[in-house]
Write a structure and sequence with these properties.
With about 110 residues, this protein is α+β, with helices and mostly antiparallel strands. It is about 25% helix and about 35% strand. Strands 1-2-3-5-4 form a five-stranded mixed beta sheet.
């Protein structure tokens, strides 16, 4: 994990980071209470395929959990969202985070 930037406002620190995977860099964001030290519970926030790790609803909930509850909160985008162009160059196609499947009966 490599942290790439940090900002703080309203009692919450936001740090952008990248994780290295076989598909390239996976971008993420970590929210913590300002001045947080030591271990604390971590909430991993998920989002739908059409959203982003910093979609307004994700950010609002993450900031609330960090400021009001003292939790660390993280959200990541899948490698395809992070590195679509690079993935196409490596594989010849644009990969997805997972197969798009309809529930049976629909």
């Amino acid at each position: 994990m490599r942290f790439t930037s940090q900002a703080s406002s309203d009692g919450v620190t936001e740090q952008l980071f990248t994780l290295t995977s076989t598909f390239g860099e996976i971008p993420g964001v970590l929210w913590t209470p300002d001045g947080a030290a030591g271990a604390r519970p971590l909430i991993l926030m998920g989002h739908g395929g059409g959203q982003h790790k910093k979609a307004p609803g994700i950010v609002a909930r993450a900031r609330r959990f960090a400021a009001d509850c003292g939790f660390a909160v993280a959200a990541v985008d899948c490698p395809a969202m992070a590195t679509g162009r690079e993935m196409r160059n490596m594989t010849g196609s644009s990969p997805r985070c997972g197969p798009a499947r309809r529930p049976e009966g629909n």
